[in-house]
Amino acid sequence: MLINVTLLFLSFFHFNQEKHLGSIERLSNEINDLIHPEAKIEILANGFEWSEGPIWSEKLNSILFSDVPNNVIYKWNEKNGLSVFLKPIGYSGKVPNLKKAGTNGLTINSDGDLIICMHGDRMITKIENLNVNKKSILVKSFNNKLFNSPNDLVYDSNGNLFFTDPPYGLLEGDNDKLKEISFNGVYMLSPNGDIKVLIKNLSRPNGISISNDEKTLYVANSDNKNPIIMKYELSEDGVNNPEVFFDGRELTKKDIGLFDGLKVHPSGNIFATGPGGVLVIKENGDHIGTIRTEVRTANCAFDEKFEYLYMTSDMFLTRIKINTK
Prior knowledge:
This protein is mainly beta. About 5% of the residues lie in helices and about 45% in strands. It has 1 helix and 28 strands. It has one helix spanning about 1-20; strands at about 20, 25, 40-45, 50-55, 60-65, 70-75, 80-85, 105-110, 115-120, 125, 135-140, 140, 145, 155, 160-165, 185-190, 195-200, 205-210, 215-220, 230-235, 240-245, 260-265, 270-275, 275-280, 285-290, 300, 310-315, 315-320. The strands form 7 sheets. Strands 1-3-28-27-26 form a 5-stranded antiparallel β-sheet, with helices on one face. It starts with a helix and ends with a strand.
């Protein structure tokens, strides 16, 4: 055990000294169009217990992200580095939850409001125009039952909010006595406040994103017994024609991590956190490479110019330069 701890310390020290970690696995030359052959994974900040849910704020010219166990949202930018944006946030003690986790996924709507998955308070809230003094509840229940622990979320151009609700924010998961909804769902909240469940049959729905043409919904299933990314046809009625977009069972045999957050690049390629780091997957499901972060990576986000991919990688906030062409 002493040897393992020493090695971990030396590895951590090496990461800090070099300010870089990992490598790029290039399975196809096509990945060179997205990530320059000499690009490196930069460590921007460290010391987090579990970093999650990054989103770029154009207004703040910063990346915002969660440290889930520590009940805090951080802000990082080139000028000032790391600072606390909101704390405490995610768990208030007003909602039954023995795990007491903070926030998870974040996004920003078309009005510039920060939308937050409150893992501990089991709801989704809004910070109006990024003003920390203007917080309100966006949605807190389905059929008068508390959500499990909203995890990740994405808007379409019509203002519909799609979000996932696995049981990770509950101390005993599916067996938690405070769990009120029997399934782990994927939901859609319309601009008028109507909410409907779209998907009930995924064991661990987690990361969620929408294709550029808004015809396809991608949902990651973070289950080591069924590590897959699903895709669904979007329609006015909800979702149709479920299909496995990417099967990660072979990758989980050799690499750490499960499918978690995912984002769609303007090229249509999907950047999906999963076994080994961040997988780059074409629209047809071909895996063309992996940003190998060496630690479990929870989620990722682009800046508004798509110059960088920011990654929440366990104890780190990292990024890598992306080709903008």
